[in-house]
Amino acid sequence: MNNLPPLLFDEPWLLLLALILPLVVWALRRMQWRRHDARLARFADSAALPRLVMVDPSPERRRTWRLMMVAALVGVALSGPRWGLARGPVSSRGIDMALALDASLSMMAPDERPSRLERMKQEVRRLRAMSQADRIALIAFAGRSYILTPLTNDDGALELFLDNLDPSVVGQAGSSLARAITQGTEVLLASDGSADRALVIMSDGESFDDPTEVERVAAEAGSNGVSIVTVGFGTTQGSTIPIRDGSVVKQKTDDEGNIVVTRYMPQLLEQAATASNGTFIPAEASDKATRIRGALRSLRTARREVNTREDHVPRFLWVLAPAMLLLAWDSWRLLRPQRSSSSARYRVPMRGQAPQSLIMLVAISLPGMLSCRRTPDPAALFANGQVASAVAAYRQLIAQGDTTQRTAYNLGSALIALDSLNESSERLESVRQQTSGELQFRARFNAGLAALRLGRAAPANEADRYLAAARAAYRDALMDRPGHADAKWNYELALRKNPPQGGGGGGGGGGDQQSPPEPQNEAGLDQRQAEALLNSAAREERDVQGKKQRQGRTPPGGKDW
Questions:
Q1: Can you tell me the distance from the alpha carbon of 113 to that of 18, in angstroms, rounded to the nearest whole number?
Q2: pTM exceeds 0.85 for this model
Q3: Whether residue 257 is found in the same domain as residue 118
Q4: Using an 8 Å Cβ cutoff, are 22 and 64 in contact?
Q5: Does residue 63 lie within any of the structural domains?
Q6: 135 lies in a domain?
Q7: Can you give 386-430 as a three-state secondary structure string?
Q8: Based on the domain organization, do 238 and 98 belong to the same domain?
Q9: Domain range for residue 442?
Q10: Which regions in the chain score pLDDT beneath 50?
Q11: According to the model, what pLDDT value does residue 109 have?
């Protein structure tokens, strides 16, 4: 993995000056030297001149090279070099927006590649990139609706829940637009602030609500000042719904054993938008995120400080400072008294060499000015049990411009040991999305571990959400490495309603000497025992879900997708 920070320039075309300016300096110095030679030629011819005037050209040549170096550095500085990242507050304007996302089984249909659900997530991420100052709440709905996050600017939390959104997050099957509209409206109306409110509903429209009920709650939301935008996904031709059972993929069937075909149904989505005087964006529309922003452009915004922007830090002074020092040194050499040099080839009083002490001073002070204070080795601090100091050292590395995913992973893993689990989950999820291979697996593993610990410590009404995120992380980990015993054991713990206080492993470090050591499986299970527990827990969870659906939680008509 490349550890060098990315290098950018504000005006890349000005880098040509780094080539042109030294050539200009060389040409000007050449013209000056020729005029000098022409003046001397008035007194004697070239054969007699060395006996009358003692000239040593080497100091002037060295000065030419120094001035060319100064010109090249100035050219680079003018281009505006930037490297390293820094967070800074940004003042912007935004609205309050609730995103109600359909997480029913029908959203797994692949008639939009790779699936309706994944396409919906892509549009949400693009919408968020256009709405950095907006406060956003995430709501997942199927037969019921659940608030995943309240109104927040925290991109890490939004991305964490968005990435783990799937039908397992919502316990009741089916699809109810009315409940999603009701809960989205309640979340928005409970918020304080002067900004206008918007509810964006993303769904395939295959809802089994009473149309009059959907229109009623939508009209009520509109009368309360909530702008509704409904967005469709899917195709009218429809598709079957793949259901993964271990390594086997089956097609969803109804109670009579017939294969279900789910279709995009725009009628309810359009009725909800019309009843609230909102906007309907059909599934056929391209660039849905831009269309949503256009529909919300007229809403009243509020000014907010957003602390999530990362800018490449300007570094032109790091290039300009040595140029100025070099120029100052050259000027000092010109102004100091001349000395005779009997050893010169042409025996002429010329500029002497700078004292060695000055050269040593420049050599020592310049690297000190350009470099930052050395950061303590975080891995050594972690190994010595100084977890808080290790976390502080990793933060300092990132603040100094270290943007490598390995350092971000090490910080996220160390935060688990410090019990800063929410921040750890956000950082590890970000690493998982931007890496591959061993580092991605370890980041996924430890993100699941953080979610698992949060679920075990949270109250009963909040634990399910964290445990669902842990299960999703370990499912992905086991898809990558089916034989990983610690992942199986941790997945089994996440499946249990009241897991024991022992617990399985962690993903460990990034594979080098700067990574925290890999925690071991505290439960001491071998692979065979872990597999048995995993299979037993998986069967138990399927039985529980089946019982819930048989106990009247299935939507009317038996349509549980």
A1: 48
A2: no
A3: yes
A4: no
A5: yes
A6: yes
A7: CHHHHHHHHHHHHHCCCCCHHHHHHHHHHHHHCCCHHHHHHHHHH
A8: yes
A9: 378-553
A10: 1-2, 309, 340-375, 498-534, 536-554, 556
A11: 92
